[in-house]
Each structure stands twice: as structure tokens, then as C-alpha cells.
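Hey,
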Amino acid sequence: MNNATPKICHHCHLDIPAASLIQDGEQEFCCTGCQLAWRMIHGMGLEEFYQRRDSHNTMTPPIQTEIASIRSFDDPEYLSSLTRIVDNGREVCLLIDGIQCAACVWLNEQMLRRLPGVTEVWINFATHRARIRWDPAQLPLSEIIATIQRIGYRAEPYDPTQGEERRARKNRDLLARLGVAGFGAANVMFIAIALYAGYFQGMDANAKNFFHWVAWFLATPVLLYSGHIFLRGAWNGLRARRLTMDLPIAIGAWVTYGYSMFVTLQESGEVYFDSVTMFLFFLLSGRYLEWIARAKAANSMERLLNLEPRQAVVLRGTETLCVPVRQVQVGDRVLIKPGERIPVDGTIESGTTSVDESMLTGEALPVTRTAGQPLVGGTLNLEGSVILRVERVGEETALARILRLVETAQAERPPIQGVADRVAARFVAIVLVLAAATLGFWLWYDPTQALTNSVAVLIITCPCALGLGAPAAMLVAMGTAARMGILLRSGETIERLDRVTQVVMDKTGVLTTGQLRVERLVPETGQDAVALLSRAAAVEQHSEHPVGRAIVRAFYETCPETPLAPATNARNVPGLGMEAWLDDACIRVGRVGFVLEAPSAPPPPPDLDQALTWSACSQDGRLLGWIGLGDGVKPEAHSMVATLHKLDLPVLMLSGDRAPVVQQVAHATGVTLAESELLPEDKARIIADLQNAGAVTAMVGDGVNDAPALARADVALVVANATDLAVASADVILLNRNLHAVVHAFTLARRTLQIIRQNYTFSLVYNLLAIPMAMAGWVSPIIAAISMPLSSLVVIINALRLRHAESNTP
């Protein structure tokens, strides 16, 4: 066989000398990239491919160079710095360049999921970030990146510091293409005006042909450079045997351009270079506006990304070093000055300060932090300098975990999107059939209108609006929720929140503060309330019990300028109370029998509030008075319950506390249904009974003793700290401990589903009206080019309304 005989690659169909081809059964390929892609597309095994690759180096020089340039990603040390360990292998975050629409996301996900060892793939349409989980023992990272590159995209490990540079590069590229298209379209339109005038008033044939050639010269760079992103998208889809929305655009542009070129060469007929340049200009304008809108939609995520400082001041021995945050290690001591962001998670070793945690929790007021208390990376140090002992770095910090939760939720497709995705996947094929039918009809009826009408059909139809209807709304909703201190685990959570008909709430830590406070002081006759509190606090300053801490805290709130009297010989009697000596007198605080040294002593008088927990205080066996403690109701609890009732969401309170306490809290908050003295399994049983009666339940708890009830509920909302995000039962994590976050979660879910339905309705109505009008010849290609991107833009702008969801909450 003559090696010079050209053959056809079975995948890309290029003419390649036979000596350069790779034989795989009866198929021949120009390179291993085409061989691998063909095997993945046809669902064939890749074991033989990898054996062949390892034993025979048959790749062509360009592919060898491409693979060699990314082999460094497989270095174990480098791999450990780029990825994190998960249950079923490793997880890497890649930045994919070249994604233009939802179809690009779908194509990349489908190709990656077919690779051996890849278990999960999420691609964020707005940020172009891909989060991939795979088994490195089956597949090296370089092969994942190479697969993305072989279908026409570029991938690299994500670096937050390069995000701004990438956006600026993308912005410059779109503006350059838009500028070339605008320049070409404007000049071609001037020529078109001259040709139109000549059509009615007469024009010399040589002049007409000259204008045709000039228009061809101006339209060519518009098609090849400005229109390259549409041509590349169409080609990438065809290589992967998929029909993307760029295909009708590319066909319309090339058919119109090719026909006009034929007319120019034949020097007979009319050209449509003005249509080519104008609709490409309008399409690019729409894509640029869509790019800006998507950037705004992803703004909340970018704000979270920008919270992490780039450098940290580390104290190592006698040295003070300024190092990149990525080089900070667990156990390091980090100096944080006023006005600086906290770089990593840890515990304060020394110093006291106030911290602004609003960007993570949504709480506007600063919180005080002192030695022994935790600090979360990304929050802002406002006042004092502190030294932080580092406990979590990198992907293990609270900020990194929040980002993963939000990104994963944004990338997951909710069930409501499934129908739209199936329609959009078949939409392009339907469009091509309709365009062919339009061309055939008009060739029979009026050949002069056949080309323009069929091109109009190709351009005006838009499944992008249908495909973007849910993702755009979900993207904005997740970002808005994160800004309010609400973390949603998935898009499905939003759908379930919208269907909720019954809200169930725990009492302690949800409706109440979860912290005991002194509510009443009842001194005995002849005793002073402040003196009673002073003696009790002097004893309880040696206690770690919540009752003791509440009494000491109440003393400092009442007498901030007075120091506690020193008590000696303090003794804790578990389950009974505290005893200490003060001014040669024995002071006891606790149960009345212990305080009065009489086991059969009577309980607190019945006229005292039974909803409070009462401690007695005595001096040398003589009763000084009673101290009533309670778990205070959160100030916003009543308005939150009232707002839920306005939303037709009844509230049921479940608690393991005593009946008088539960009834008092129910009365204070406006809850009409309450159950008391319940065990955790009782709460789960009550929720199951509600579900059996047809209710869709949402349980709001603190995640401590509510696990069975949270797991049983249709939607689990957990009030949690930013340092404790691993709540297994939680669908919604409320970092903002203000109870109005519960209302925000429900109203945001309802508005999100409302906007998704509006987007779907608009997209369907648009296509049902636009396609028949284009087929009938009522829409020119230029008007079609304006309408198509505007339909996607309307969907995105409608979704952006969710950014103001907080201000519109009832």
C-alpha cells in the first residue's frame, strides 16, 4: 500500500496520509484524541486504548506536545496542592474557557462523565468552573484536561487570583469581536444603501459588481473573526455528535455568505452581505449583554471568593513573616491587626476584638471575640489586634466549605428543569427541519424569498431562553441566599420549600435564645434584690454550670462598675448547687432543699412564675430570696411567626421542656399549636403523622437534638454556626441566626419558582410566535438576529430580580 495515499479519519473526517493514521479495528484515526473521543461517543471500552497508549507512542507531534504540556498536573506533590481528598477519590476545581451557552455545559459534562474513573461532574454556567470527582488510580488528571481540550475547550486548575484576569480577557475578546462586527456591518450597510438606490434608480453593472466585491471584502473578517465563536461552537458540537444552538446560526451565516459570494463571482443577482454582518453584530451584542448579566448573576459568589485574603502575617519563633495564605499551616500563629480580614479558621490565643461576620452570616451587628473563642476565615477584624492559632486551612476552612455548598447547589439541576432540558436537546433538530421545509416551500412559491426566510427561521428560534429559564433563576437565588446567610444544598431544596404547607419548630435555640438569663429577683422581706444577686454571683463565679454563668452575667449587667466579692472554700454539689464562704458566712445557691439544709423543704411559692426555673439563695441556712431564670424569647420571633401565618404557613412548636415553659413561649411568639415534654423520637413521630395526613413539612431546629425530626421532615432547616456546616440532615443551613432568615428562605423559594415559570412561559410563547412568523416571511434575518439574543436577555434580567428578594420580603 502506498503510504502517500490519503485516508479519512473516522472521527474528524480530515484527509491524513495513511502513514500517520492509527488503526483501531476497522476504524482509522489521525490521533489518539480522535480515537478516544470516538470510543467515548460510541460507549466502547477504553482499556485497550490505554494499553495501546502505554505500549506504543503513536500520537502525532501536535497531540504529543499538547499532552506533554499538561503531564505536570499528574505530579503527586502538585496534584495534592490542586485537589482535595473525598470519599471516592479526589476532587479538583477546573476553569473551562470557551463556554458560551447552556449547551456547552451539557456537552462538557456528558464527555467527562464517560471517562473511566470519573464519578461526579458539576459545571457552573455563570462562573465556568467545573468541580470533578474521580479516581486518580484509573485516570490521571492530565487525561481529564486533555479530553476537554479535544472537544474544543481549554481547561486549567482554578486559581481565585486569576478570576479577574480571565473576566477581563473575556470582556476584551468579546468587545474586539463586537467592534469588528460593528465596523463591518456599518460599512456594508452604507454599500447596501447604494445598492438599494441603484436597484430603484438604475446602476451601472461595473459599479454594482465593484460594490459587491467591497461588501465581500468587509463581510469576510466579520464572518471569520467575529462569527468565530458561533462557528467554533457548532463545530465542537458536531465533533461530539451533538446539535448545539450555534449550529443554526452557523448554517444561516454560511449559507447567506456562500450564496452572496456565488452571486459576486457570477456577477449576476443580489447579495446579502449586509444581512450576514448585521445579524452577527446583533447576535454578538446580545451575547455581550448576556455575559454582563451572567457576571452580575454570579456576583454573590465572586464576593464570597474575594473574602479570602491573599497573604497572612505568621509568627514563627522570633520571626514575623508575611506569607501567601496557601503556605499557612495548621498550628501556625497568625497576627491579625484591626481592619484586616481573617485569613484562615482558628481560635484566638490572645487578645480581644470585635468581628464583622455579616458577609458570611448576614448579621449586621459586630460580635465580640476573646481568647479561646473561634474566628472564621473571611470575616473582618474591626478593633483589637489578636493572635490566632490556626486550625483549618485551604479547602477545609468554613469559607471554602460554604463556597462548595453554594457552587454544588448552583450546578445541580432541579427537577423542574428536566422537561426543559429534554425539549432543548431536540429543539435544534426541529429547527433544522423547519428551516428546510421553509426553504422548500419558498423555492416553489417565491424563490426570491427562499434564502432570507429560511435563514430567518434558523436565527430567530432560541432554545437558550428555555434552557436558561431555571439555571439563571437558581444561580441568582443561590447567590442571594448566600448573601443573606442562607445556604441551600441543592436546587431541589428550593422546589420543596415552595411546596411546604406546615412549618414545625423546635423551641430551645430556635424561638428562644438557647441561653439562660435571670428574668426575676424575688428577695425575702427585709432583703435587697441587688444584695441577693451580689451574694449569689459571688458564689457562682466559681461554677461552670449554665445557671451559675447566667447569675454572674446578670450581676455584671446590673452593676457593671462593681467587682465581685471574693468568696472562699467554694464547693460544687452536683445536681444540688454551689456553696462558698463570704464574710465569714456560708452562702448557698441552688435547690431549695440543699440551700435550707432541709431535704423536705417546700418548692418555690405557687405565686412565682411556673414558666421560670427557680434557684434559692441562703446565708447560714436563712433564705435570702429566689432567683428566676428563663430562656428568653428572641425579639424577632413573634413577627417571624406572624409573617409565616400571612404566607399561609401554620407553625407547630415541639419541645422537650415542661408544659408551663412551652405555653409561655407559645403565647409570647404567637404560636397557636405547641407540644411539650417530647423526646426526639416523639418529634419525628409527630412529623410522620403530619405527612400521613397530607402535609408537606419543614422542620426548623438547631441540629443538636433534633436529628430524627430533621431527617424525617420534607425540608430540614438548621440554625448553625459558620464553623459547623457539616449538618448531615440539613437541606437549608441558616448561618444568620435572626429568625427572619426562615421567612427569607420561604419567600425566596416561592419567588424563584414563580420566575422560573415566567421564564418558561415567555420562552414557549416567544418560539410559538416567532417561528411561524419567520416561516411566513414576516421577519427579516436582521430582525431575527435582534430578537434571538433579546429573548435570552429577557430571561436573565427577569432572574436578576431575585437579587432584591430580601427587600421585598413581607
